[in-house]
Design brief:
The chain is of the alpha/beta class and 336 residues long. It is built from nine helices and 15 strands. The strands form three sheets. Strands 3, 4, 5, 6, 7, 14 and 15 form a seven-stranded mixed beta sheet that branches. A six-stranded parallel beta sheet has the order 10-9-8-11-12-13, sandwiched between helices. A two-stranded antiparallel sheet has the order 1-2. Helix 3 crosses helix 4.
Amino acid sequence: MPAHTMRAIRLHEFGGPEVLRHEEVPVPEPGPGEVLVRVHAVGLNPPDWYAREGMPDVPPELKPPFHLPLTPGTDVSGTVEAVAPDVEDLAVGEEVFGLLRFPTSLQAGAYAEYVAAPASDLARKPVSVDHVRAAGLPMSGLTAWQFLIELGHDHPSPFQAAPHRPMALDGGTTVLVNGAAGGVGHLALQLAKWKGARVIAVASGGHEPFLRELGADEFIDYTKVRPDEVAHDVDLVLDAVGGPDSRRFLRTVKRGGALYPVYFGAFDDEENARLGVTVTATQVRSNGAQLAELGRLVDAGTIRVAIDSTFALKDAQAAHERAARGHIRGKIVLTA
């Protein structure tokens, strides 16, 4: 059993990376349906810095409940240390990874040496995959999977009335991935290729060799040309950047095609209908079963998780500073 205390990253006020503190706190107790995980690595994701900032741009009705002091982090890879009596599928000593409590909580507490995790959010880590890469997979991999392959839940999106239904991908499909070098983008590219699609990758020029290696059939350097002006007759755009500028990709999509903005922007339903383009998005959710499928693909070498950089847990502030500089290739990971 672990000691009674552990080291964790907490914030007592909202703000920049400087509010992240490395502190000694109690080890959590696993509740019903949970296991205690000894953390080996933690993946960084945009919700981590949104939580750190207090989500100032999100309407109050859309904010999940969270309070200070807060230990951020949802993506974890580690070893099961203890198991609640009602958990039957996992045992002490097994290596697991998962996206914890998302999107219902922004304080799942993964930036720590131990974390209490719902067993249903976890999958067994393949032996061939190290903890760093396993920790980089959950949120980004599940986002790509739920947008492109299988939604896997019936929770409505807070941003739209229509349910998201992934388009079937095959050898006759052309997919454009905007933000292809980032966490979601580089995994979405590989999943589309796994399904046989032709993939156009959009990123800055320095990422071209990396994305070609992952299987991109065509590359567009957005620093030299506007991708929405040079790409045409695309079946599907996955815009991993999203936001207000996502609407510009409507012109690249053929009638009957679709545009999936990962971060939803402002769209006109009448314009979408006139162009014959389906615009839908979803909110990624924890799903241990889907994560197990992704793990099998990584284990088989079908997809790989690229690591931009790693930092020790105590250096979480530096990791957030790295994230703020942008142009991330793959994932940033903390090691505990």
